[in-house]
Structure formats: C-alpha cells, structure tokens
Amino acid sequence: MLRISNHYISRTKVLLICTEVFVLMVVFYLGASLRLFGQIESSSLFFSALFPVAGTFTFVMILSMAAMGMYQLDFRPDIKGTLYRLMPSMILGFGIMTLIFYVLPDLYSGRGILGFAMLLVLLGILLTRAAFLKWSSLGILESQAIVLGIGTRAKEFIDQAKNAPRHGGFRIIGFVPLPDEELHVPSSAVLPKESLMSLVNRYGAGEIIIAIQERRGGGFPIQDLLECKLNGVKVTDSAAFFERERGHIRVNSLYPSWLVFGGGFDQTILRSSIKRVFDLAASGVLLAVTFPVMLVTALCILFEDGAPFFYRQERVGKGGKTFMVLKFRSMRHDAEKCGTPRWAETDDPRTTFVGRIIRKLRIDELPQIFNVLNGEMSFVGPRPERPYFVSQLCAEVPYYNVRHSIKPGITGWAQVRYGYGASLEDAIEKLQYDLYYVKNHSLFLDVIILIDTVEVVVLGKGGR
Fold first, then answer.
1. According to the per-residue pLDDT averaged within each range, which of 304-308, 407-411, 428-432 is highest?
2. Are residues 208 and 333 in the same domain?
3. Measured at the alpha carbon of residue 201, what is the angle toward residues 197 and 206, in degrees to the nearest 5?
4. Do residues 294 and 350 share a domain?
C-alpha cells in the first residue's frame, strides 16, 4: 500500500492507473492516425501538436472511469463488470470532451478523431484489464503476512480474505497460536510452533499482524516481534491493518491508547481553512450546475403532494450541537404521525412517487448546499444523524461521538463505500468508515470521495 495524504492506495491500483494512462495516450494517437491517414506530413509535428489534446483526453477518461468505480476495491474485474462500468465511462468522457471543445476551441481536434479514439478505448481498456487480471492473479505484488493469534479477532482475517478482491494485494500465510487461546480459525491454517523469525524465513513473509486482545503477561512474544522488526519485517496492529487494506477502522479492534497516540485526526487551523475554502468552491459550483434540477424537483413535489417542497429536520453537527438540515421533502406529510422517529426502509411506503425518484438519485440532498454555505455542514464528512438516534447509538456503539469532532457532510466516505444505513448494525459499519475519514481526512481524500459520489448518483447505489 502507498500512503498519499494519509490515505492508503494499493500498489496494484497505482500500477493499473499508470498502465491505462499509457494505453489511453496510445489509442488517442492511433485514432488520430487512422482518421488522418495519408494527410500527415511530419510525424514530429503531428505528435507535438496533438499532445495537449491527447493529455486532456487521457485525464478526462481516467477521471470518468474513476467516477464509475473502475478503480474501487469492490470492482469486479471480469469482462461483464468491466463493460458495465466502461460504457457509461465512455459516454461521460465523450460528453466532457465535447464540452471542452466548445469552451476551449484551441483543443478542438475534430469529432472524427474523438470517435476513432473512443472505439479504440473500448478495445484497449478491455485488453488491458484482461491482461492485468491474468498478471495480478499470479500474486506478484501480493504481500505475504502471518497473523499472530487464533482467536475471534484472528477469525476476522478469514472473513477479510474471502471478501477481498482477487487483486487485493495481500495474502494470509497462516496463524500463529498463543498459549491458552481458544481456536476460532481452521486448524489447517495454524502454523507449526516455531519462533516467529523462523516462520518468516520459511514462508517468505514480509509482515506480522497482531490479532490478540490481551498483550500483557508472559504469553505475548515481545522479544520475537522485536527480532522480526529489527530484521526488516513489518509488525502491524490489526486495527492499522484494516485501516490500510479496507479503508475503515474496526470498532472491535480499537482501544483508547491507539486513538490517543496514533497518527491522524488533523484538526489544525490550516486544515480547517483549506476545507472551508473547498466547501465554498464546491458548493458554489454544484449550486450553479444543479439549480435547474432543484427548480424542476420543487415543482414536481408541489404538483404531487402540495407545499412545502422543503423539509427541515433537526440533526447533530460538530461538537454535538444541533442544527436544522434542509432537504427536499420525499415523504408524505404524516410520515411520522406516531411521533417516534423511524429508520428509513427499503421501498419505504411513506415516500411519495417523486420522493422515491429523488432519493434514489440523491437529489433530495441538494438543498443541503445552503447548510454548507451557512457553515453548519461541510461538503464532505460523516452524514448527520437525528438526535433521537444519536443518543441511542452513543449508548450502544463505542466511539460513536468521535464522528462529531468534525462537521457533517453532504457526502462522505461511508456513503461511497457502504451505502445507506437503516439499523444499528448498519450504523456500526458506517461508523467504521466515518472513523477512517475523521482520522485521515484531507483535501486529497475529499476529491476522491467527490469522484466516487458520481458513481453513487449515476448508478443509484444505496438510495432508499
């Protein structure tokens, strides 16, 4: 894993992006050569003249593929999965390039060249993904890891390995038992009783992951771990492992000292100032782009169910302070006539026809732009919850209040990685992603979340 601005990106993903940047540059020049066949007098002038357009085309296509989730951890690398994301990526990329041609006519190279390039993109990316999948399945970039422990915490690594993508970047060699520890992993995965250093040398491991709850007493092999550390073997806590590999912080692996003495949780004035400038810029652009959509939505709500088309609801913000969030009304007037707040359900019968559409496309969240401009929310951050649910969750879920150390957001890491939450179990899962964001938030991560949000909106992921 590579760490960029506190955010972890797999080496496999970086290599894939670099490879496809090269492929996209090549296919654009090849498309231009086919379109202008017989008209090219000087190859050097041809390549230099088209370089700005080729670079713009490559950047737009990488951005479009990223927006459609083609670089996410849960992306299916088979042909069907690739086509499912690549086709809308090409449509989005073609639309953006057409807009650029009108706004910046100096970059205009002709629709014929763009058309040829798009056809070659389909072939080039499919071949690249097929070759990359074959190559990555060999495990060349995989990290070999040994897990110290065989208990309930170690069992999580079995589940992690099952859910990890085929190009996940790590492989668990086996588990090392400790005295008096109950077995919760397959006995076939337990390694023989030897020193950790000898196991590392035998299996070629580059990392040891500590997955035990109790680390005091004579059973914890501190000297063995120190020997491994001094010989260049990485020693990683289970919480840090899940943070790095899955982009979330496991609540059941946390202890207060890890939060206190660990890195991250940047709340400096500089970071806050940068985030505020980003919020104002992003909100202004989004408001200008979506204002027609908001106007049509308001009219549709009025025609179907009458006034009001806005809905104000109390939510918990930074520091536990409450504020009134603004949304388009998607439910009937009597949605909570019993007086008790309820989680939203799948195909919730309380929603109106227009409400179901705008919730699926996340249009109902757009008025929160005004909450961002007022400074009550941020553009990216944990989603704000209602006080009724917050009081319940704080009592039942450890560290839940940590998410209130920063402003809530319109979109967030939990929204693009997990989806909609409507139960205590969902709240715990989403909290793990929120903790990752609170610990590692940066401008770089905010931009990644905004790019991933495009896929959530376009493909309707997680809407209820």
1. 407-411
2. no
3. 85
4. yes
DSSP string, 135-162: HHTTTTTPEEEEEE--SHHHHHHHHHHH
Question: In the structure encoding, which two tokens stand for residue 301, read together?
Answer: 């709500």
Question: pLDDT tens for residues 321-360?
Answer: 999 999 998 887 666 666 566 666 666 677 888 888 888 8
Structural domain count of the chain: 3
87 within domain boundaries: yes
Could you tell me the sign of the dihedral formed by the alpha carbons of 106, 107, 113, 115, in that order?
negative
Burial class (CB in 10 A: 0-12, 13-18, 19+), 232: exposed
Averaged pLDDT of the chain: 84
Count of positions (residues) in the chain: 464
**Quick one: which of 122, 123, 59, 70 has its CA closest to 91?**
122
Helix-then-strand count for the chain, H and E? 16, 10
Last residue of a domain, one of 105, 136, 167: 136
Range of the domain at 300: 269-458
CB atoms within 10 A of CB 260: 8
Cα atoms in the Cβ-side hemisphere of radius 13 Å centred on 393 = 26
Q: Are residues 394 and 410 in the same domain?
A: yes
Residue 422 predicted with pLDDT over 70? no
Claim to verify: residue 304 and residue 394 sit in the same structural domain: yes
Residues 45, 12 within the same domain:
yes
Q: Is position 464 within any domain?
A: no
**DSSP sequence for 49-69:** HHHHHHHHHHHHHHHHHHHTT
Distance of CA 158 to the CA centre of its chain: 22
Helices 111-136, 11-35: crossing angle, 10 deg rounding: 150
Q: Is residue 177 part of a domain?
A: yes
Q: Give residue-wise pLDDT tens across range 67-103.
A: 988 887 655 567 777 888 899 999 999 999 988 888 8
CB 246 within 8 Å of CB 73: yes
Q: 132 and 24, same structural domain?
A: yes
